[in-house]
Amino acid sequence: MVRTRGRAWEGLQESAVSQPMTANAKEAVAFLHRPEIGRWLLKTSGLPVASGRTTPPGWRTYKLCLYQDLVLDVARSLEHPQWLLYRLEEPDFEPVPFPSSDPEVQVVKALAVRSLYAVGAEAGQVTVMAASSHRAKVVRVEPDWPAQKADAYMQRAREWWRERMSKQPQELNKMGADPEFSLRRATGEMALASDFLKINGTVGCDTTRYREDLALHQHPVAELRPAPTEDPDELFLHIYEALRLAGKKIPHKDVEWLAGGMPFSGYPIGGHIHFGGMTPTFSLRRKLDAYLALPLVLIEDPGCIERRHRYGFLGDVREKSYGFEYRTLPSWLVHPVVARGVLHLAKLVMMSHAELKATPHLQLPLVKAYYRGDKETLEPYVKQIREELRELPGYALSRIHLEQYFDLLLRGETWLCDFDLRSAWNLL
């Protein structure tokens, strides 16, 4: 095996348009040389982790060599007889063609990529075992590629990176958002958004299936879809206009609108932000985590911690034809100061990502604090990055809104997610 660092990584910055390739940080390599830390990071991030080294009967072992989202190689263990309860040696592996239409292989790939990100690495080998597309667990993550294939893998990674970077201008050209909110009747029960809204439109229903006890046409969560723009103030105005439109469609004063993380058990809501013209590299995702997701913890409600069991994990993105969607944040519609601050901060991070230095993903106490909602641990970190952000040339353009936002974050209060957000937005 060979570490994915050193000579193979020389000259990486020449292979990208404006986002350079990145190698494994020495801290991440050190984490993975202590298996208990690697397993802790995986579990903390909400990933299913295998409890032992032996693959149970009926399960298959996969080994995936990765560079970020790129699958360089997939191998799968050969089937053993069901009666063989204990394997006395490492199983034989066969190559798996990739890309693959096999649902199990697709799930294994997604789990491997998320695992690599969760442990703070950029490249390595992830071992996953699976019994079906619904049953898969991570066994381990190693910061190494097989030595005999490392040079070939590096060449493929460079070529993939050049091609991937060329698909976007790597300059932010638009921002969008689709923040969600829930509805509560005077009885305290959840009202279905689909009772008032259609699926499509500027104000509609999120169609995610959360619970099987709902009919196919029943959708509990409302979603705003404001027109995208490159100006965070204009996007904020579009959100305000969308909320006013929602008021016309849901005119009932006794039906409250709730934001935050999970106003109703089992129904998480989010504040996704869309970025046009950019590629969601691991580095860029980590900047969004470091400067957007971690600071927001200071005012989050307990429902946001519950949401992270399935949603809201660090680095959660969906790549799109126009760029990507960052999905980690809860619904920041709670208050207009929060909404405007998040949008301005998102723009600043995207415009200045190459200059930002914070690496909380390599500091175990900060990773733990994010997933546990530990505000006390995160407060000094937030003060530190606030000072860093103030030194950026682009900060002056958003100074008023960012100062209000960080003042609110550091006030020691929790956002009022249990109160009707229309009051904060002056819509009642």
From TrEMBL:
Tree of life domain: Bacteria
A Pfam family hit: COOH-NH2_lig
Protein name from the UniProt record: PhiEco32-like amidoligase-type 2 protein
